Amino acid sequence: MESESQITKIKTVKIFKTNVRNYKDVANIVTSLLIIYPSYKINFDLADGDNILRIEANQYEIDTDQIMQYMVSIGYSCEGIE
């Protein structure tokens, strides 16, 4: 029988292209998203030309539609990248 430490946890990662351009906005967006999704790991890569939003979760599904709708509702573009 496998112990819990031997069981591989499922990690799901979703990447989004955004038009977020500054780190003040990044801080506000990450804080807001973590209130809604406290179990997600959320970060941005503004050095990438697509201003990447990266979300990681220890579960099978990430609520991509809701995340994109939230980003649009606060005035940013956000589209999933496969």
Could you state the oligomeric state of the chains shown? single chain
Helix content: 25-40%
Number of helices: 2
Distance between the termini: 36 Å
Return the average pLDDT rounded to an integer: 90
Sheet with the most strands, sense and barrel status: 4 strands, antiparallel
Q: Say how many strands there are.
A: 4
Structural class: alpha+beta
* Apparent shape: globular
Strand content: 25-35%
Gyration radius from CA atoms, angstroms? 14 Å
Order of helices and strands: EHEEHE
Low-confidence stretches: none
Strand order of the largest sheet: 2-3-1-4
Can you give keywords for this protein?
single chain, 82 residues, alpha+beta, four-stranded antiparallel β-sheet, 2 helices, 4 strands, globular
Structure overview:
The structure is a single chain. By secondary structure, this protein is α+β, with helices and mostly antiparallel strands. It has helices at 23-36, 64-73; strands at residues 12-18, 41-45, 52-57, 78-81. The chain has a four-stranded antiparallel β-sheet, covered by helices on one side. A hairpin with a 6-residue loop joins strand 2 (41-45) and strand 3. The chain is globular.
